[in-house]
Design a protein that fits this description.
The complex is a heterodimer of chains A (720) and B (214). Chain A is α+β, with helices and mostly antiparallel strands. Chain A contains 18 helices and 26 strands. Chain A has a seven-stranded mixed beta sheet. In chain A, helix 10 packs parallel to helix 17, helix 13 packs parallel to helix 14 and helix 16 packs across helix 17. Chain A is globular, with a radius of gyration of 27 Å. With 214 residues, chain B is of the alpha+beta class. Chain B has three domains: 55 residues, no CATH class; 76 residues, Beta-grasp domain (Ubiquitin-like (UB roll)), CATH 3.10.20; 67 residues, DNA polymerase, domain 1, CATH 1.10.150.120. In chain B, strands 2-1-5-3-4 form a five-stranded mixed beta sheet, covered by helices on one side. In chain B, helix 1 packs antiparallel against helix 3 and helix 5 packs across helix 8. Classes of the chains: A alpha+beta (720), B alpha+beta (214). The interface between A and B is large, with 74 and 75 residues. Bound molecules: FE2/S2 (inorganic) cluster (FES) (2 copies). One FE2/S2 (inorganic) cluster (FES) sits at the interface of chains B and A.
Chain lengths: 720, 214
């Protein structure tokens, strides 16, 4: 039996192996904190112990005297950064607000707000000395519980967040069948395995190189250049590998700027690695969000009205916004739709985008409510969705560039065995466990931005592609290599893709599922342009698959290169483009202990042509697992009496581990969308997660007959 | 010599005569006594004299064999094996994911057993053999587990990967790779936030089924 189970290894997906796989399995891949420079010093931050107020005294003497300490930086001795003077003052009340800055004044805006940075000649000495910094405070009253100030929420400025109305949204009230429910998600923290880190090294008085954990080397280059008033070319940002980020390295955070400042002060390279605890209050999080869905349908399941309302937390000094309610506007054909989005400031650091961002939050509510409506209508949830399928974009009337959502429903339903789903909840049992099936769908905009790629045919016959993108783990280099192999017509082993350095031609920040399309499009165009250049060199009658190394040699050239900037076609404006996902889950729930186990998962992606099957599969599997964590485990808990996280580590903040996760089927519709880019590929980073938490909640309802509208669905809530 | 510093180990041998740590304790007591004299104390502190003297004695000699290479290092007793590897020996293949023993990113082998190097003080591995991810391959020839991770795409960002691989090798060696379920159970100390779990399990199953020497 055992032997058989062992031999029953699921086949791996075809497609090339990760181009950086060998570096990753041998430990040779270098992440930000792993650039150890000569004469480097280590920095450690001292977090505030109060939540709000001002520092009245700060005693750094003992720390300064501790062995190996080179500098203790506080607001009292930090130099004024030239770029900070001209920018907006973040302490002014939020009118959009401004980003946090460290060591500029004595205010404390949230618990764990860094009040000092200790720099020493070793990590241990810096850590010890940091414990010697003592502050006294003038405490002020604070509020960290967004649920208590939902009534103070306001609509953010700007047209994107204004209330949306199509037809008469209140029509839902007149429907024969309706659902009006509230849904809540807690604070979730990205918690990638790599801790946020930076090594800053001033190579001249006005030149700095930073090895940084960032999703955008160009945007970090600009942020640092701005803060120090340097020409961007004087700032080099190197990010060869990123150990996961999921959104937490989209911004350049103030501790990064502070480390650059420290290196300037002590005239030595400085390394800062945030502790795991500091990941909770230094690099963003998915905000607590309250939502309400009101939806009505005719007896045969046609939506008559839908209102999606959300209120989410932001910080006291900065507005953070995301597209929580947007999906309601275009996912289903419904003549009467309204959305309302508001944010409410609390005394935490500012939230930021976390994988799937607001759409994942919104999809939990919307896709749960539609499930609830399906049961009320006595309709299969897939059938209900098909009856309200949007053939054209209901928000703007445009046709979809491509949309194969119905195929995705069918593929997933087939694979999971949807026909075995009990239509009456709580009726299927196995060995004392309740079995249930659920599904949920996700959607995310697909577009193409602008990127510049340099393509060089080298004398050794290797095609070198260069651009300043990063790879947070999804396999950008691998996908780009496959795109280039197709476009240039040479084997992938002859292609080298170089990324992660701001001095390379510009590319956008990695986020929002845009990179395969944007950078891939530019790689494709650069390859075609270089091919064309070769054809001109060879002249008519030459082979269209020449031996490039030989051509260069014959022509006496060292190399031939092109640099191409490209972006989406104007044709795209006439279409609506989205990637879609449909997630199916089979759960078993133990009625006595409330434990939910995930038995089966099938995630289907309609994201155009799949350029890199192996990495694409991993991305979808990873997203599904992120969604399972969101549904069942993840919650950063603040003790609101103190404004402090009580589970700011990986023992207290639960994420899925091996034992929680079964084999996962990732299926692809795999039909190209050539309107978006020449490869016909659309993004899948976000849709891999969006809709998954609803699928799990819906499956738990199917298993137990209990509806959970507040995440995470932990055993204590499920226990009967 | 090796046995002299074993008192920190679970099976510690206690101290033997002439232990420099004792000497250090004696000397630092002396120092403290001197420092209690007011004027001197202030002066010594201001000039960092006490710390400079203490710094020398605060370090202990440790002999470790890492990936077949002998290292004689002087480390402070508070230095973890993980930080010794990453910050002092530039062996950055071993990762820090939490520093609290909660994630497994720092997994290495000490005398063939998997341990969290963030929970292991460097002085505790005196006289021991440590294998890190950098020491798994034989030159250019990858270890079967490394090959299987590449083939099954057992990672995305790669940050948990060294720990997963070191744990996976140990899991097979321990005889805990008998079934998919058993592998999941015995690999649960290694978190992968990218969610490569199914691929990792498949890689381990293949290595186990292949029956190669790990
Ligand atoms: S770093 Fe050692 S277990 Fe996480
Ligand atoms: S591969 Fe990124 S954490 Fe495992």
């Amino acid at each position: 039996m055992k032997q058989q189970e062992l031999l029953n290894i699921p086949p791996f997906t075809e497609g090339i192996n990760r181009v950086d796989g060998k570096l990753k399995v041998t430990g040779a891949a270098k992440y930000a904190a792993e650039f150890n420079l000569p004469n480097m010093a280590w920095a450690v931050l001292v977090p505030s112990t109060i939540t709000k107020g001002t520092i009245s005294t700060i005693d750094t003497k003992a720390a300064e005297r501790a062995p190996g300490v080179l500098k203790v930086i506080t607001y009292l001795n930090a130099p004024k950064l030239p770029g900070y003077d001209s920018g907006k003052d973040p302490s002014k009340p939020p009118t959009g607000g401004g980003p946090l800055r460290l060591f500029v004044d004595n205010t404390v805006k949230f618990n764990g707000h860094p009040i000092a940075m200790v720099v020493a000649d070793s990590f241990e000495r810096a850590t010890y000395a940091a414990s010697l910094v003592k502050a006294t405070y003038n405490k002020e009253s604070f509020q960290t519980d967004a649920s208590k100030v939902l009534d103070k929420a306001d609509t953010p400025k700007g047209p994107r967040f204004a209330d949306y109305k199509r037809g008469n949204p209140e029509e839902w009230q007149n429907a024969p069948v309706k659902v009006e429910e509230e849904y809540i998600i807690p604070i979730e923290v990205h918690n990638p395995m790599e801790l946020s880190a930076i090594v800053a090294h001033w190579t001249a008085d006005d030149k700095v190189t930073v090895y940084d954990k960032t999703q955008g080397v160009k945007s970090t280059q600009n942020a640092i250049a701005q803060a120090f008033k340097l020409p961007p070319d004087n700032v080099q940002v190197i990010t060869k590998f990123v150990g996961g980020a999921f959104g937490n390295a989209l911004r350049t955070w103030p501790h990064e700027t502070a480390t650059v400042m420290a290196a300037q002060m002590i005239k030595r390279p400085v390394k800062l690695v945030l502790t795991r605890e500091m990941q909770f209050n230094s690099v963003g999080f998915r905000p607590y969000t309250w939502q309400k869905i009101r939806i009505g349908a005719t007896a045969d399941g046609k939506f008559t009205g839908l209102i999606h309302e959300a209120r989410a937390q932001t910080s006291s000094f900065e507005e953070f916004t995301e597209g929580t309610v947007n999906m309601a506007r275009f996912m289903y054909a419904c003549p009467n739709v309204g959305t309302i989005y508001k944010i409410t400031p609390v005394d935490t650091n500012t939230p930021t985008w976390m994988r799937g961002p607001g759409e994942a939050t919104g999809a939990f509510a919307l896709e749960s409510a539609i499930d609830e409506l399906a049961y009320k209508l006595n309709l299969d949830p897939i059938e209900l969705r098909i009856r309200n399928h949007a053939d054209t974009d209901p928000e703007n009337g445009k046709p979809f560039s491509t949309k194969y959502l119905k195929e995705a429903y069918e593929m997933g339903a087939d694979k999971i065995g949807w026909k075995n789903r009990p239509s009456k909840p709580g009726t299927l049992t196995e060995d004392g466990w309740l079995i249930g099936y659920g599904m949920g769908s996700g959607v995310f905009g697909a577009g193409r931005g602008r990127a510049t790629v340099k393509a060089t045919m080298q004398s050794d016959g290797i095609l070198l592609l260069q651009t300043a993108v990063t790879d947070i783990g999804v396999g950008t280099g691998t996908a780009m290599t496959q795109i280039a192999a197709d476009a240039f017509g040479i084997p992938s082993s002859k292609i080298k893709f170089e990324l992660g350095d701001s001095s390379l031609p510009p590319s956008p920040t990695q986020g929002g599922s845009m990179i395969t399309s944007t950078v891939g499009g530019a790689v494709h165009d650069a390859c075609l342009a270089l091919k064309e250049k070769f054809q001109q060199l060879i002249g008519n009658g030459g082979s269209d698959k020449p031996d490039y190394a030989k051509v260069l040699k014959d022509k006496g050239l060292q190399q031939l290169d092109v640099t191409i900037t490209s972006s989406g076609s104007s044709e795209m404006r006439d279409f609506s483009s989205y990637s879609y996902s449909v997630h199916f889950v089979q759960v078993k729930v133990h009625p006595k202990t409330g434990v939910t186990r995930i038995n089966k998962v099938v995630s289907v992606a309609d994201s155009g042509h799949i350029v890199s099957p192996k990495t694409a599969r991993s991305q979808v599997v990873g997203g599904a697992i992120g969604g399972i964590g969101m549904a069942l485990m993840e919650e950063a808990v603040i003790d609101h009496r103190f404004g402090r996280y009580v589970n700011a580590d990986l023992a207290g903040y639960h994420v899925p581990v091996h034992a929680d996760i079964p084999q996962i089927d990732a299926l692809f519709v795999n039909k190209p969308d050539y309107k978006v880019n020449p490869m016909g590929a659309k993004g899948m980073g976000e849709i891999a997660l969006i809709g998954m938490s609803a699928a799990v909640a819906n499956a738990i309802y199917n298993a137990t007959g209990k509806r959970f509208r507040e995440l995470p669905i932990t055993p204590d809530k499920v226990m009967i | 010599m090796d046995e002299q510093y074993n008192e920190g180990l679970p099976d510690g041998q206690g101290q033997s005569a002439g232990n420099p740590r004792r000497d250090f304790l004696k000397k630092s007591t002396l120092l403290t006594a001197v420092a209690l004299t007011p004027g001197v104390a202030v002066k010594a502190a201001e000039n960092h004299v006490d710390e400079h003297v203490a710094a020398v004695f605060e370090k202990l000699p440790v002999d470790i064999e890492i990936n077949g290479v002998k290292h004689n290092v002087l480390v402070e007793p508070r230095v973890t094996l993980l930080d010794l590897l990453r910050e002092q020996l530039n062996l950055t293949g071993t990762k820090k994911g939490c520093d609290y023993g909660q994630c497994g990113a720092c997994t290495v082998h000490v005398d063939g057993h998997r341990v969290n190097s963030c929970l292991t003080l460097a002085v505790m591995v005196d006289g021991k053999k440590v294998t890190t991810i950098e020491g798994l391959a034989k030159g250019d020839e990858l270890h079967p587990m490394q090959e299987a991770f590449i083939k099954h795409d057992g990672f995305q960002c790669g940050y948990c990967t060294p720990g997963q691989i070191m744990s996976a090798v140990a899991c097979v060696r321990e005889g805990h790779a008998g079934s998919e379920m058993e592998i999941r159970e015995y690999m649960s100390g290694n978190i992968c936030r990218c969610g490569a779990y199914p691929n990792i399990v498949n890689a381990i199953m293949e290595v186990k089924a292949g029956g190669q020497q790990v």
